From TrEMBL:
Entries under HAMAP family matching the protein: 23SrRNA_methyltr_KL
CDD domains registered for this protein in UniProt: AdoMet_MTases, THUMP_AdoMetMT
Reactions catalysed according to its record: guanosine(2069) in 23S rRNA + S-adenosyl-L-methionine = N(2)-methylguanosine(2069) in 23S rRNA + S-adenosyl-L-homocysteine + H(+); guanosine(2445) in 23S rRNA + S-adenosyl-L-methionine = N(2)-methylguanosine(2445) in 23S rRNA + S-adenosyl-L-homocysteine + H(+)
Coiled-coil positions: none
Domain THUMP per the UniProt entry, residue ranges: 50-161
The protein, known as: Ribosomal RNA large subunit methyltransferase K/L
Keywords, in A-Z order: Cytoplasm, Methyltransferase, RNA-binding, rRNA processing, S-adenosyl-L-methionine, Transferase
Amino acid sequence: MKDNNKKTYRLMASCAAGLEELISLEAKDLGGSEVDHVRGLVTWKGDIEAAYRTCLWSRYASRVFLTLAEFPAPDEDALYEGALKVDWSQHMNIDTTFAVDCSLNQSAIQHSGFAALRVKDAVVDQFRNSCNERPSVSVVRPGIRIRTSVYKDQATISLDLSGESLHRRGYRKEGGSLAPLKESLAAGIVALAGWTPETSKDTMFLDPMCGSGTLLIEAALIFGDAAPGLSRSYFGFSGWKGHDKVLWDSLVDEAIEREEAGLLREWPPMLGYDADPRAVAVARSNIENACYEDKITIKQGQLANLRRPAAKGLMVVNPPYGERLSEHDQAEQLHRALGRISKQELDGWQLGVFTSNPDFGDRMGIKWERTHRMYNGSINCRLFCGTVHSGETQDFQWQLTPDTGPEEGIEFGNRLRKNSKKILKWARREGVRCFRVYDKDLPEYNVSVDLYEKWIQVQEYKAPDTIDEKAAQRRFQQCLHQVRHLFGVRRDRVFLKTRRKQKGKAQYQKQAAHKKMHTVQEGNCLLLVNFTDYLDTGIFLDHRNIRLKIAKEAKGKRFLNLFAYTGTATVHAAVGGAESTTTVDLSANYLNWARMNLALNGFGGLAHETVQADCMKWLEEDRSEYDLIFVDPPTFSNTKKERRVFDVQRDHRLLIEKAMARLAAGGLLIFSTNFRRFQMDESIEKYYAIRNVSRSSIPIDFARNNRIHHCWEIRRR
């Protein structure tokens, strides 16, 4: 052993903010003393063995530094002079390559690159003066790496013992996402969530959105008592003149023995899922590189399909952040799905959720026991930790006020009460939560009333010009009073719309920008509705039976949804077990809505594709086959960019032919239209087996208007 093995040094470890406490505990366990920390940096005193052990065993540090000198450095010249006083011959030879890094914090020195250059000059000048030769600089794996930091005009020159960031364990060849977690941060998340080497063998570790598998591998390293630096081929001290190879080799041998002993332990089950097959492949490769393929199981699967895999366990997950504006809404809904599914399936489990948005933690509906602030690079994140409690949620039930309503509009009130009693009884029996209770029954009261869970939408249909406008307004106010009285609701739960004869895409155009979404249930699906920003809410209630039919037909099938609107039919297909879904619409807003609906139900990834395109043109270009196709075109639309006009009566034959060309053998195409005067082209029956199912597709709450839509099932002959 070399003499410097017994010498005490001032050691430092840099880390991601939020991991300081964990590294402080490591430093003490690894032989350090006088441990202290500030944001992103831990300092302690220890000998060279403590320094080596930190490089080999620290799970959370980014780099480990051994202090060589500290001195005042108010300017670049003082920095040069201080560096020149270091006896560099104790640390390197003339043939040792080196590199210099520099960081400045509240320093009078303004340029870190120039500061690093001055330190480099000091090293070179010292050797040139003593040997008439100079060592060479190498930025790629130099013999030693010198780190200079200047804080408030106080300089510290250190030897970077790690050489490269310690998060590079060596097992990960590529990430499964655009920004995979660094291994050191992943280890911190796992530890703070409650996973330790003493965790019971009966406690499962689960990551249902595992990406490249980093959380799972770090959990395995912790439980298996494996040194995270054992697989690294390079450390910064390897070219250091003071390196004690005998000591290092003995520490490596000890680590190997501990890892082998850890592998012989009885392990808890460790399981990861991901919806993306590419991520699954990367995770399996990384796990194999880490030699844990017999300890960790990776499967491809949607979050929606998560079922309780063990009696007890710890679920640690890093859901997508949605840092891109277009993905933020989907990420929020995915967190809501994660919370809901956790409460349904993982009662009593421990849960750790790492996210960049604190609001997302609130959306999950979990009562968190502790929260840790952490950073993923520059992103300010939170780790929410707690115990999952399923709890019992009571379904909302409408209760009709027994008292007679106001005298004004009593005729409407009586009809509304009669309808509501009948429809509510049916809805409770069938489990329907969104339905219509009044549909222009009385000519004088030209409105419709729809119930969405605990919200009400009242739509006024614009009166003809022959009707006095003030009289129409008075009757509409009477309707509102009767509605509020009968259902006993506050004003903020009643939303009003006025419908006029629409042209083109007017019914789809934005009317406001509140962006307030409410969640409702239909069948086994959760769907988002918006009562303020658009004329329609996001769900066509009269298509309920069609969507339920799609859910029954979809299992194991490839589903195509054309003119998809907000993707409600796609969600039913996904929940019904579709192998894959493709959702096509020209509107970016509605496709984003569709992705939110999918995320809210725990679906996403390559199996559920959304395509922004003109459906007619897209059908000409797409060559895929689908087992189940839903086509629900608008009555009329035009595209400004392409200067194309779509008329459902004129163009439906060509549309059906194009769609049928994509239908696989034995498949089913469902065609629907709300154009009341629509007539199906007679030639369609010559080429295809077609069945009019309009009557069965119209639900009871819309039975009064049997022409609200038309629907056909079409198959190949």
